[in-house]
Amino acid sequence: MRKSFGKQTFMFPMPVLIIATYDEHGNADAMNAAWGGIHDTDQIGICLSPEHKTVKNILALKEFTVSMADSSHVAQCDYVGIESANKVSDKIQKSGFTLSKAEKVNAPVINELSMCLECRLVSYDESSGYMVADIVNVNCDEKALTDGKIDIKKVDPISFDPVSHGYYKTGDRAGNAFKDGLALR
C-alpha cells in the first residue's frame, strides 16, 4: 500500500547550496538555496526569488559562486539562509565565514566550504525564479582531495529534507555507477 501526498516539492536528496556574490560596490553577500542542481552538461539551475539581495547582485554583475554546504558548518550555512542581506549588511561577517576572490569570475569563494562552482549567469525568469548559469570553473580545497580527485566524504556535503526541514549528511557509497547494473544484462 502506498500513501499519496499530492503535489509537493518532495525530492531527495536536495543539495544545500550557498550562493555568494559581490554587489556593484564590492560588498559580499551569501545565501542558502536548496532548490538547485545540474541543469545541463556544464550548467546549473537554481530557483531564487527576485527579492533576495543575492539575486539583485547576480543580475547586476552576472557572476556568482555556488558552494556545497557541509556538516561542519550547518549553523553558518543556515544563518546565511535565514538572515536577509537586505536588512543585515554585515551578514557574512556575522556568519563567521571568510572569503577569497574566485579565480575565473568576479565573486567570492567561501573559504570554509571546500567545494565551489564558479558561475556566469545565462538567464533568469523573474516570474518563476528559475536561474540558469554556466559553470565556468570548479575549485576545491586540497584537503578535500584524494589522489587528486574531489572526495565526497571529505567535502561532507549536506542535503535538505523538505518534508521535515532537516539537514542530513551524505551517506556511505551504495554501489558503482555504470558498473553494478551490468550484472543484469
Description:
By secondary structure, the chain is mainly beta. It has one domain: Electron Transport, Fmn-binding Protein, Chain A (Pnp Oxidase, Chain A). Helix content is 15%, strand content 38%. It contains four helices and 14 strands. It has a seven-stranded antiparallel sheet. It is globular and about 60 Å long. The model has no long low-confidence stretch (mean pLDDT 95). It comes from Treponema rectale.
Low-confidence stretches: none
CATH structural class: Mainly Beta
Q: How many β strands by DSSP?
A: 14
Describe the strand arrangement of the main beta sheet, using strand numbers: 3-2-6-9-10-5-4
The DSSP helix count reads: 4
CATH topology: Pnp Oxidase, Chain A
**Computed CA radius of gyration, to the nearest angstrom:** 17 Å
Q: Which secondary-structure class do the elements indicate?
A: mainly beta
Mind summarizing the main beta sheet?
7 strands, antiparallel
Order of helices and strands: EEEEEHEHHEEEEEEHEE
**Estimated share of beta-strand residues:** 35-45%
Percent helix range: 10-25%
